Amino acid sequence: MAWVYLLVAGVLEIVWAFFMKQSDGFTKITPTAITIVTMIGSFALLAIAMRSLPLGTAYTIWTGIGAVGAFLVGVFVLGEAATPMRLAAAGLIVSGLVMMKMSAH
């Protein structure tokens, strides 16, 4: 169940990162509120997952989901560039996440 919590925490990290961008420096109330609520949820689920997962594994996978997810949202929702180098970097992050998961006990 810890892996499910960690996955949801990572997805919430993507959500709060997107809405932080939409908040325009915390000047817009609704995106700011969504940022704060999803941030709290993300941290809470990460903490629950860390009860049974190693710190390094849980934190690395949580940040990796957030990083790659935010990149994908940036490309597909916000129209940011998907250059070969950015795609390769995202691919390297994903490969690192797969290796981290495979090494977890």
UniProtKB/TrEMBL annotation:
Keyword Transport: yes
InterPro entries in alphabetical order: EmrE-like, Small_drug/metabolite_transptr, Small_multidrug_res
Keywords: Cell membrane, Membrane, Transmembrane, Transmembrane helix, Transport
UniProt feature coiled coil, ranges: none
Chaperone is among the record's keywords: no
Signal peptide: none
SUPFAM superfamilies: Multidrug resistance efflux transporter EmrE (SSF103481)
Protein's cellular compartments: Cell membrane
Bilayer disposition of the protein: Multi-pass membrane protein
Residue spans crossing the bilayer: 33-50, 57-79, 85-104
Family from the record: Belongs to the drug/metabolite transporter (DMT) superfamily. Small multidrug resistance (SMR) (TC 2.A.7.1) family. Gdx/SugE subfamily.
Protein name: Guanidinium exporter
